[in-house]
Write a structure and sequence with these properties.
The protein is of the alpha/beta class. The protein has 7 helices and 10 strands. The protein has helices spanning 3-27, 35-38, 57-66, 79-89, 128-139, 159-162, 198-208; strands at 46-51, 70-76, 96-100, 113-119, 142-153, 165-166, 178-182, 190-194, 211-218, 226-232. It starts with a helix and ends in a 6-residue tail after the last strand.
């Protein structure tokens, strides 16, 4: 995918979250059931990088399940949602750093973490090569023995989501399984979403060079709208 198309698709999503911040926040108040599986692999005193943290609900989930000994770094491109995250997390986590950052243009390039979480994000990253590069970059942020957990939204497999697909403008040079989806909630808005199939999901795992611990489906009314993978950075010997 060429850079002009990447920037254009990314701008569609920047505009989407600016327009829908309030309704998006209201519709994203509950923890995902798939996160519970991750708890089996986490340790206390956790350093967490939450990519696309939105209103901070994954941080709230960790605080509720693991207690206050979580050092949380949340990244999102929406200043409105980051403010909602600050309000939600300040009372429950003493160590919170929230950063406004566009990870499509500028992936995180510093720090070591026990857990890097990437939930509800990859479908907004334009271009196969850009998604691969992001996964390689995030793998570099994992401390030895730490985890990278990500989930891909499998929306295209469900008729209720396919009904939201809008025609792409003829001058928008997208890749296979790239779509524009109607929000259909509150304010009129359109978002760019990419469907990650099984083959690409496996390629994303392979791109990290990490050890795959578990891959599973969870979430939504049917209990399977997201496909997760939990990966580990092996401890160095010597």
């Amino acid at each position: 995918m060429d850079e002009a198309t990447i920037r254009r698709l990314n701008q569609i999503n920047q505009d989407f979250y600016r327009i829908t911040a309030d309704s998006f926040d209201q519709s994203r108040q509950q923890a995902w059931p798939g996160w519970d599986t991750l708890l089996d692999y986490l340790k206390p005193s956790l350093r967490v990088l939450d990519i696309g943290c939105g209103n901070g609900r994954f941080g709230l989930f960790l605080a509720e399940r693991l207690g206050a000994d979580v050092r949380y770094h949340g990244i999102d491109s929406s200043p409105i949602l980051l403010e909602r995250a600050r309000q939600a997390l300040a009372p429950v986590l003493p160590n919170v750093y929230l950063e406004e950052r566009d990870i499509v243009e500028s992936p995180p390039d510093q720090g070591q973490y026990d857990l890097v979480a990437l939930f509800g994000v990859l479908h907004h990253v334009p271009g196969f090569e850009r998604r691969q590069a992001l996964m390689r970059t995030l793998a570099e942020r994992i401390a030895p023995g730490g985890l990278l957990a990500f989930a891909c939204w499998r929306f295209y497999e469900y008729e209720r989501f396919r009904r939201r697909i809008l025609p792409c403008p003829p001058d928008l040079h997208v890749e296979p399984y790239d779509f524009l989806l109607d929000w259909q909630r509150g304010e009129p808005a359109v978002r760019y979403c990419h469907y990650v199939d099984d083959a690409e999901h496996a390629a994303l795992v392979a791109a990290t060079g990490l050890t795959e611990i578990k891959t599973y489906r969870a979430d939504g009314d049917t209990g399977d709208v997201n496909q997760y993978s939990i990966l580990r950075a092996e401890k160095r010997i010597g």
